[in-house]
Amino acid sequence: MKLKLLILFCIIALLLTNYSKAQNPFSLRGAVRQAAQAHPYLKVSQYDIPILQSDVTTAGLKSNPQINNQLLFLLDGSQFADNSSFLISGRNRQDWWQLTQKFYVKQQRQKKIDFAKENVSLVQKNIEDLKRNLVYEVANLWLDTWILKQKIIILRETKSNVDTLIRINQNRLKNEVILPSELIRTQILSEQYQLQILNTERQLSTQKQSLTFLLGVKDSVTVSEPDIDFQNLPIVIDSLFAFANAKRTDIQANQQVIKTAESNIKLQEALKYPQPEIGVLVNPQNSVLYAGTFITIPIPLYDRNQGEIQKSKVIREKAELQLNTTRLQARTEILNAYNLYQMARENLTKFGDIVDKSRQVLSTVRYAYLKGNTTIIDYLDAQRTFFDTQQYYNEALQDLQKKYIHLLFVSGYIQQLAEN
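Above: the chain sequence. Below: its structure as tokens.
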């Protein structure tokens, strides 16, 4: 008997351990950090770095030497040397052996390497900008999940209050203090809240599955309490402008595009110079040995790489315009996000006052109803008003949270949120 109880205890302990492992609680900062490390799309994009690093290796390779052989046979048999073979005797043929090598001029090889390295830096900057956008997506999804969790708490609390009233009204109906319709009204309201709870739980389950995927984890995740003070922004707007100009990832990516374009211009300018091919040759002619040198240089009369040079310069001009546009866009986005954040903070304060008042009204009407001094309609109206104001408050809180995260996103600070 004791052995059975011990086995049962071990099984229960194992199940509880597995359940606790299967539920990964993430705060907002924790979710953002996890996404910055293990977001599935981010992992895929990381492969672009070694792909372009292979171009650096390719750019550093020197061209292979070339060997060339030509054979000329004497076909007129009457001219053959005495007692000589048509194929074997060197007196009846001429051989040509040539070994050549192409050479870079104007540091063409080094400039190819430099251009390839700038492309690697560019893809790294683009990945950082991708990380900024993915982290922003995860932060918003975390907030949506958390607000659904809060909605379920409010619904359950409200339903619990209504269920308590149902039990009271059942006794009051037995004592013939109220009409049956009053009990039915409270039961209907309880059923409505139960249906909302079920629908919200389904939405929460869907949000958790999406969050699990974006965080790159296998087990189901849960959201804990926010670990950010959304109502305290210790940064003035001028600091946001300066930080975005220096650290915002899309601005950095555009700056790197300019560097890459400038490196490409230098490369294309160098490639307009022809590459000489130099070597040695050995030329036995009818058993007489000749040797010499070989050199060939293309004459740049028509092709001087004009098209690629022109294109590289246009790319740089486009990149410079794009950088200026992105900086202007960032400034506009920060200004708008800052104003909307301030408005959302004010709205939350106002809704907080309304919730307090509606709670007081509900308490007063509830007491009056139980004492028989008001009708069920007044009580249910007060209950709905309190629930609606709670919902409005949560929506205002969610709006403030999202405005705060959006301000961090447009200013570039969201990257630090993932690092700290």
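The beta strands are 23-26, 66-73, 93-102, 220-223, 277-282, 291-296.
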